[in-house]
Structure formats: C-alpha cells, structure tokens
C-alpha cells in the first residue's frame, strides 16, 4: 500500500470553484441551450399558443391622434420692437405642457363637455355587473365562517357604508383615472410638436376626446393668460389708487410745510435772501465809505497839525469858504506887496494889512478845523450805520438758516412726493397697457392636425401580448433547461470529475451499446480490436502502467462507489487487452457476495473457484478458468461454493488470500482484482492494501456526485492513494455536447475514425 501525498481535496475543489467564478464559458452555455432545444421549443410553442389565445380575447382598441404646435409667434402691438414676438421656448417647455395636458382640471373639463360620465364605455356599472378578473377572484366563505373569523379577530368587521357623496366622489376620481390612462403624449423629436393620442374602445369617441383635449388645452391657455392679465389689472388698479392717495398726501405735506414756514418767518426764503443780499451790499458800501472817511480824516488832521499848505489839499481847496478866504488872502498879499513898494516898513498901513492877512489865515484854519470836524461827524454816523447793518445782516442770516433747515424738510417731502408721482405715473401707464392687452390676448399654440376617426383597431396590444407570451415561454424553457442542468448530480465530463474529486482521470470507456449484454461487450472487443472501445481500454492500461514508470504496477484493483458502474466489465476488458498484447494476465473476482465475472463470460457456475483455492479444496490450476478464445485466465467466485457462514471480509483479510495475490503477481505479468463497491461493503478497503494500483470506476451521467466523493473519501481515509478514476459507459455522442475541449470531446467527435 502506497502513501498518499496528493494535495487536500477541499483545497483543490475551492481553487477550481474560484477559477470557475472568474471565467464564463459561453460555448458551454450555448451547448446547454442546444441540448435543451426541444424543451425550449415546446415552452415557446406553449407560450405562443397562450399568447394567441389571450390576444384573441383582448377588446379592440382604437387610437386617434392630434398634433399640437407649442410656442408659435404672437402679435404684440404694444412692443416697440415689432408686431410679431417669438414665444419663450425653453428646454422644459414640452414636459411642462405635457403635464398640463394630463392635468386633472383639463380632464374634468373634457369629461363635462363630452358628458363622458353618461357614455356607455365610461358609465358606472352596478356591482353585480362588474366583471372580476381571475387574479382578483376570492373564494366566498359561508356566513357562519365569516362571523366566527370576525369573533376571533382573524377578519376585520365590515366598515360602515359610504355616504352617497363619497361614492360619487370616488366614481368621479375613477372616471378621471380611466380617461387619463387612455391619454398618451409623444413629443416629436427636434420640434415643438406634441402628438396627443387617446385610446378607447370606440373610434369616434377616441377622435372626439383627442380633439377635445387639444381644444380645452387652448382654452385653458387663453383663460390662464386672461386670468393672469385680469389679476395684474386688479392689482395695478388697487396699487394705482393707493399711489394716488399717497401722492396727494405727499403734495399736501409739502404745501403744509411751506405754509408753516411762511407763517413762522413772515416771508419766504426768496425774500429773505434778497433782503440779505441788499443789506450785505449796503453794509459793504458803508464800510467802504467809512474806511475812505477815516483815511481822509487822518490825512487832513495830519496836514493841519503839520501846518502844511491847506490849499494843496483837495478837500480844503474845494471848500467855497476856504476858497473865499484864500482869494481874500491873495488880495491882501498883493496889497502888502504894493504898500511895501510905496511905504516903508513899519508903516501903519503895512501893519494893518498884515493884521488883516493873519485874520484871514486864522479863518482859513478855523474853516479847516470845521471841515475836519464834519468829516469826523460823518465817520461816527457811518460807524453807527455799519453797526446797524451788521446786526440786521446777522438777524437775516439766522432767519435764513432757520428757513434753510425747514427747506431741507420741504425738499425731502418734495422728493418723496416726486417718487410717488413717478411710480404712480408708471403704474398708471402699465394699467392702461394691461387693459389694452386683455383684449389682445392669444394663445401661443395651435392645432396642426386634428384627430381623425381611426380606420381600424390597434394591433399593438395583441402583438405585444403574443410577443410577451413567446418571450415568457422562451425564458421558461431556458430556465427549465438550466434548472435541469443544475439539478443534474452526476458527472458528464472528465474535467468535471477531476475538478470535484481531485483525482486524475485515467481514461474514458465508451458505451458499447444501449442494450448490449456484458458478454457481448467482451465479444465486441475480440471481434473489433481497432474499435473505440478497444482503444479506450488500451489507453486505460497505458495510463495505469505509466502511473509508476520506475516500477510498473502488476496488481491492479478495480472498485467503485455503488453497484452497476461497469467496474467488472472494465476490469475484464483490461485483462483481455493485456492478454491480446502478449502479456500473461489473470483477473480475480473479489466480490464474494455478488460475483459477476461468471456472468460476464457467460459460463457455468458449478466449478471450483476462489473460495475453493483459499480453503484448500482445489488447486489454483483447477480453479482458474482459461478463456478459450483469448487464453485469459480468470479466477472467479462461484455461487456453488459460497457458504452463509463465511464472512467475506475475513476471507479477503486472511493470510491465505494475501499469499494467493502474491503468488499470482509472481506468476502473471498482470493481476486484476475486481472488488465490490466501497460504499456497500468494506472489502475493497481490505484488498486495497495488496494492490499496486487502485482504479476507481465512475459511470458517466449516472453515479451521484456525493456517492463518488464519499467512496473516494472512504478509500483515502485509510491513507490509500488512488492511481486515478476511470469514467465508464460514456455515451460519446452525448458526451461531446457536454465538453468542448479535451480528450472526451475529440474522441466523441471523431469516433467514426476508430470504427473505420
């Protein structure tokens, strides 16, 4: 018995599953569908028939369509840019108008105008006349059962009856819902056109409703605009009236402020400003004259004080009195000069003239003093006048400042009044324009083409029903095919067997015939040495011998998980093939409970066999059967030599049997041990320790996966290493459909090559 050094089965299987999750084998999927093509075809046919029957029961429906253009240019004579104005048409206009066309308000108007509540198609039916759909059917229970369920709380008691107005409201809502369900809107791509369609069981009704929807839409748009205009006009009227009162109040406030200002100050601001300007001018003149008089006074006083010639000064020279005195002085000076030329100095006449001259000079100085005094008096008067004017100017300035403060308030009131007046005038103008617009309102949409009475019913519903039924049938067929494929619990390909079991597949043995007996299979191998079966057996023999190149196995054990796996037939074919290749071979039937080799060779069961050799009642040469055609030696277990008191496990675990196997391995080139299934008895596990190679047989598309996994686990749990598994009784034609690559696929595809 050899030790097992293979990787753990669970790790191998998990790695395979992980790899399978990452790869989708489309060819395998198509192959699965192709294998179940008849199931898919039958399901599709059933779906098509049901669809046809369902479509034949559909009530004919008629659809009428009207086309509506949204956003046309409208006339606006109030604009300065032109008469025609393009309507504002944004990206959200069509969805918005679609919602308007589906609005409850518009549908109610259509129902009222066409009196749809009394139309036969929409007239509410009595409760007993309402057809209940099959999916809405509920079995009626006896009254006693219903009462009992209400008593125990399993069923709620019926509620109070609805009032008449509530029933009517619900009927009205149901009618709106039915009409809305018949409306279909389809915006025409790259345009502002909406197709408004209505579907019903009456062709004329469909056309009437479609046209009424478009008509009510236009009416609703016009009424909406008129309502908006009227609302704006009403608001403007109220606002204009308010502004009118506000303007009057503001203007009255300005006038009242001006009146209070006039009353408080006694004069207007303008008069005060004029007076202030006049006083300022007078004050300036007075101050200028005062300055001139003071300068004149200083100059004259200084001249008199210095004794200068008063005639040199313009003020004195222009005085008539001074001029008279100066003329008199000139005459006296002339007389004095004349006297001095005629009389001597000291003459009383000269003295008298000189005295007269001095008197004149004193008079001149006295007159100059009077002139200076008069100037001084004028200066004092001017100073008093300037002071008086200054006081008056300050008073007027205070009054002007007070009036200015009052004027600021007045100007604020004037600005408020002006702002109210401007707003009032603007709103008044807008009110007049709005009143004019009310008579010029038009809708920005029009009907391109009204709905016509449809000539025939729609076939879309019937076709849709048939198509959906066909699709459902196809999907059901595909689902059944994949479900059956998933429910399959067997092995259909060598790759699948290797991945799940974790053992190498040594070969696949084809099915020789559907109803061929086992001895006929043996005859087929002899008669057709080049057949696919013979080639598969030779491939199995080669795989087993090359499993250990250094020490080719001589004792080969065949087993399986459950009976009827083709194990005995495969082991017999293996031995026959070795014999045909010139090697000495013997096959030993180790199934002491249900021997099968005698049935395979179709020979009598009354001669000596394996048990006779073990108990010593017969020699090996007497018990071995020699197949006459091939010379194969067979050591069978005969039914005649079996005893109920014999334990098969004790026999196979005995030293005699072990010595027999060793003796056979020394006498023959190949010893084949045909053992019973591992899940039925423990014999195979006992014999496994004596074999050089262990081959596990799995029947194609028959043995349950769990049985195979459990059978392999039973053997490997004793630290026994399997040489590999062989897939038996493979239907190569069908197997080629389950595998798209590998030996099984090409072997099934080119099976005619072996027969040739």
Automatic annotation (TrEMBL):
Coiled-coil segments on the chain, per record: 233-303, 350-430
Domain AAA: 566-715
Highest rank taxon of the organism: Bacteria
Stored Pfam families: AAA_31, GNVR, Wzz
Localization per record: Cell inner membrane
Domain Polysaccharide chain length determinant N-terminal intervals: 24-114
Transmembrane annotation, as ranges: 38-55
Protein name: non-specific protein-tyrosine kinase
Organism: Tropicimonas aquimaris
Phylogenetic lineage: Bacteria, Pseudomonadati, Pseudomonadota, Alphaproteobacteria, Rhodobacterales
């Amino acid at each position: 018995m050899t030790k097992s050094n293979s990787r753990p089965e669970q790790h191998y299987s998990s790695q395979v599953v992980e790899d399978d999750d990452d790869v989708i084998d489309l060819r395998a999927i198509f192959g699965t569908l192709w294998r179940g093509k008849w199931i898919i075809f039958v399901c599709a046919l059933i779906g098509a028939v049901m669809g046809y029957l369902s479509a034949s029961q559909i009530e004919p429906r008629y659809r009428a369509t009207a086309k509506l253009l949204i956003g046309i240019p409208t006339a606006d004579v109030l604009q300065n840019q032109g008469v025609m104005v393009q309507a504002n048409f944004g990206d959200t206009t069509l969805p918005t108008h679609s919602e308007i066309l589906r609005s409850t308000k518009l549908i109610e108007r259509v129902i009222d105008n066409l009196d749809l509540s009394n139309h036969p198609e929409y007239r509410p039916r009595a409760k007993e006349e309402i057809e209940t759909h099959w999916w809405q059917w509920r079995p009626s229970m006896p009254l006693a059962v219903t009462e009992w369920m209400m008593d125990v709380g399993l069923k709620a008691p019926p509620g109070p009856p609805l009032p008449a107005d509530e029933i009517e409201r619900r009927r009205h809502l149901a009618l709106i819902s039915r009409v809305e369900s018949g409306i279909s809107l389809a915006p025409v791509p790259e345009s502002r056109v909406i197709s408004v369609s209505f579907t019903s069981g009456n062709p004329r009704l469909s056309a009437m409703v479609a046209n009424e929807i478009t008509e009510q839409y236009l009416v609703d748009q016009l009424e909406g605009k008129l309502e908006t205009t009227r609302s704006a006009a009403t608001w403007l009227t109220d606002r204009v009236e308010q502004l009118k009162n506000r303007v009057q109040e503001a203007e009255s406030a300005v006038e009242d402020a001006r009146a209070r200002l006039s009353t408080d100050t006694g004069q207007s601001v303008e008069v005060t400003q004029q007076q202030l300007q006049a006083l300022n001018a007078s004050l300036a003149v007075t101050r200028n004259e005062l300055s001139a008089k003071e300068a004149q006074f200083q100059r004259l006083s200084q001249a008199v004080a210095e004794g200068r010639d008063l005639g040199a000064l313009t003020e004195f020279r222009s005085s008539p009195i001074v001029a008279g005195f100066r003329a008199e002085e000139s005459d006296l000076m002339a007389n004095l000069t004349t006297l001095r030329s005629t009389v001597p100095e000291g003459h009383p006449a000269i003295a008298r003239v000189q005295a007269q001259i001095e008197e004149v000079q004193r008079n001149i100085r006295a007159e100059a003093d009077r002139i200076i005094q008069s100037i001084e008096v004028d200066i004092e008067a001017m100073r008093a006048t300037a002071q008086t004017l200054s006081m008056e100017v300050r008073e007027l300035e205070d009054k002007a400042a007070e009036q200015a403060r009052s004027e600021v308030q007045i100007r604020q009131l004037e600005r408020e009044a002006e702002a109210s007046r401007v707003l009032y005038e603007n709103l008044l103008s807008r009110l007049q324009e709005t009143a004019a617009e009310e008579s010029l309102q038009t809708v920005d949409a029009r009907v391109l083409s009204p709905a016509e009475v449809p000539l025939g019913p729609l076939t879309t519903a019937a076709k849709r029903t048939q198509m959906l039924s066909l699709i459902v049938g196809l999907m059901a067929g595909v689902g059944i095919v994949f479900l059956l494929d998933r429910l399959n619990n067997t092995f259909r390909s060598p790759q699948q067997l290797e991945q799940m079991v974790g053992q190498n597949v040594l070969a696949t043995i084809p099915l020789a015939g559907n109803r061929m007996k086992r001895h006929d299979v043996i005859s087929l191998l002899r008669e057709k040495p080049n057949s696919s079966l013979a080639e598969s057996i030779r491939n199995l023999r080669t795989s087993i011998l090359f499993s250990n190149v250094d020490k080719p196995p001589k004792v080969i054990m065949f087993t399986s998980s459950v009976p009827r796996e083709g194990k005995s037939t495969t082991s017999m074919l293996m031995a026959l093939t070795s014999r045909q290749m010139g090697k000495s071979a013997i096959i030993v039937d180790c199934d002491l409970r249900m021997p099968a080799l005698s049935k395979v060779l179709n020979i009598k069961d009354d001669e000596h066999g394996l048990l006779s050799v073990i108990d010593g009642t017969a020699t090996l040469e007497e018990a071995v059967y020699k197949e006459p055609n091939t010379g194969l030696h067979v050591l069978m277990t005969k039914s005649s030599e079996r005893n109920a008191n014999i334990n098969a496990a004790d026999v196979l675990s005995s030293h005699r049997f072990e010595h027999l196997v060793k003796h056979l391995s020394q006498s023959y080139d190949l010893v084949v041990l045909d053992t019973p299934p591992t899940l039925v008895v423990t014999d195979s596990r006992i014999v496994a320790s004596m074999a050089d190679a262990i081959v596990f047989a799995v029947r194609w598309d028959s043995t349950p996966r769990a049985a195979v996994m459990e059978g392999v686990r039973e053997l490997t749990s004793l630290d026994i290493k399997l040489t590999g598994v062989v897939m038996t009784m493979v239907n190569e034609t069908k197997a080629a459909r389950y595998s798209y690559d590998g030996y099984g696929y090409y072997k099934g595809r080119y099976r005619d090559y072996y027969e040739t």
